[in-house]
Amino acid sequence: MAYIMVDVETDGPIPGDFSMISFGAVLVNEWLDTTFYGRLRPVSEKYNPEALAVSGHTREETLGFDDPRAVMESFADWLRANCKDRPVFISDNNGFDWMFVCWYFHHFTGSNPFGHSSQNLGSLYKGMEKDMFKNFKHLRQTKHTHHPVDDAKGNAEAMLTMKRELGLKIKI
């Protein structure tokens, strides 16, 4: 199984009514050198200016981003090229990131290469530490910038630290 660390930036709280503005993905391996970055044109007239501001983009900029169907098809191609079997979706906030990626895959390509499940990095760390109040974010090396590739890479670094130093058993 190939673990794919994903991070999304959006202009609102839910897909469909609002839009995924950009997302990044990193193949979790020792080098973290296989990445994907997509910038997507909005799918809705609605947007929350405060949510959009987190991404560092203006509404006018996002209107010039790429066609969502083309981006999702490119991401599916990237997954096929970099994963021998079904990829495993993992993120810092999978409840949020997953719903956007899943909706966009189904809406624009008709299927989701990740299947029907996702994993949460924070929950994994809490289980390893046997403490529901622990936070993994101190394990990141790459600064959290709200550029989705940077943020996915930082989370992947944390996952690799869990493997090396805390005994997480994953095959990469």
Verbal overview:
This protein has 172 residues and is α/β, with parallel strands linked by helices. The protein contains six helices and five strands; from the N terminus they run βββαααβαβαα. The radius of gyration is 16 Å and the shape is globular.
Count of helical stretches: 6
Strand runs, count? 5
Helix content range? 40-55%
What integer value in Å does the Rg equal? 16 Å
Helix and strand run: EEEHHHEHEHH
Q: Major sheet, described briefly? A: 5 strands, mixed
How far is it from the N-terminal to the C-terminal residue, by CA?
A: 8 Å
The outline comes out as globular
Mean pLDDT value? 96
Strand order of the largest sheet: 3-2-1-4-5
- Unreliable spans are none
Instruction: Give the strand content.
Output: 15-25%
Classify the secondary structure makeup into a structural class. Answer: alpha/beta
Task: Produce the secondary structure layout.
Blueprint: E1 2-10, E2 20-27, E3 35-39, H1 49-55, H2 59-62, H3 68-82, E4 87-91, H4 94-109, E5 119-120, H5 121-129, H6 148-166
Helix pairs in contact: 3-4
Concise account of the structure shown:
The protein has six helices and five strands; from the N terminus they run E-E-E-H-H-H-E-H-E-H-H.
List keywords for this structure.
alpha/beta, globular, 172 residues, 5-stranded mixed sheet, 41% helix
